[in-house]
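User: Round two. Same drill as before: sequence, then structure, for each protein.

Assistant: Same drill it is. First protein:
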Amino acid sequence: MTEHYAGLDVGVAETAICIVDLKGEVRLETTVATEPDVIAQALAPWRATLRRAGHEAGALSPWLQPALKDLGVPATCLETRHVRAALAAQRNKTDATDALGLAHLMRTGWYRTAHVKTEAAYRLRLLLIQRRNLKRKFLDLENSIRHSLKSFGVKLAKVGRGAFDQA
């Protein structure tokens, strides 16, 4: 029984999948919707012999990686810079050729794994980023109001936030 390796070139709408065997011969080239269950279904015929399925780290990785693992796919998230360097020699840059290149990286073992943080870590990061954005918007609005009131002789230069409404 020969081993198989998959490369997944993940896009927002579609994922290009390429499966190669131990010799590097292509066994499957297809494109499916970027949904973990659809990807797992496309890989299902090779489940018994599929050793690794690699996808490049990206915006969808925190969602896709654990979902594929939960579905029994031996998924590996690959370090982006390393993949870019490995695929830079490709003449044609398409989703299908990227998937083929990723499959060969998985077959040869010439890749670096990227750590995918937990969902809780991403949720906390999202909250902190949104908090920072809201604070910036609030400060921008406050400064705009201060500047606009100067036209009417109202000077709020030394007024802090606590006394801003009263002033």
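Second protein:
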Amino acid sequence: MNMHSVLLYGCAAVVVVLGSRLLVALAAKDRDETPPPLALLRTWRRPVPIAAVGLVATMVVLGVAQVVAPAMIDALERHPHGAWWRAVTALMVQSSGWPQLLFNLAALAVVAPVAERHLGPWRMLLVFATSGVTAQAVSMAGWSLQGGGDSVAICGLVGALATWYAVRGGVVALRRVAPLIPAAGLVLCLLTNNHGMGLLVGCTLGAGLAIPTRPPLAA
């Protein structure tokens, strides 16, 4: 395994492991001992996170559509010298088939409600769209000319929660290591991996959104 692969998988491990800890801490509100699966499941209870429901439902419908009509992937994914609008539509298809489709749907179902409860519905959608489209645009500029998927936007939500937690988190030890997620994003960008751009854009937006303008949804 070369150094590029070591750094790539190392950054992925940091984002997945530390991101999972952050999600559980946020879902459990930092103070109870609810088992992680139950804490994350609880984020879907009332008041229902409407934006997260709409986002996940949209991606499920699009996923079914691409299975039924595979030509949809080629019509919407990134292409070399493709039109600018593909930076948006590339978020709507999963170009690597069933594994990517199922993994991204599961990740979105876990991350989106937590992000909505701590950032607010419109700000959650803003982070998802901005980080995802930016990462797709950078990919089209040369990092990864063909493909599609919303994992870069999900990374944006994780990045936003990381910087949000670094400012407002209740567990000091976890708050201190939260900056490792933007650090991983920076390394991924140096490796020209588009997930790094999604992470960094999300981290930047999360830093600006750390002070809420309205009370968050009750968890």
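The first helix runs from residue 3 to 27.

User: Perfect.
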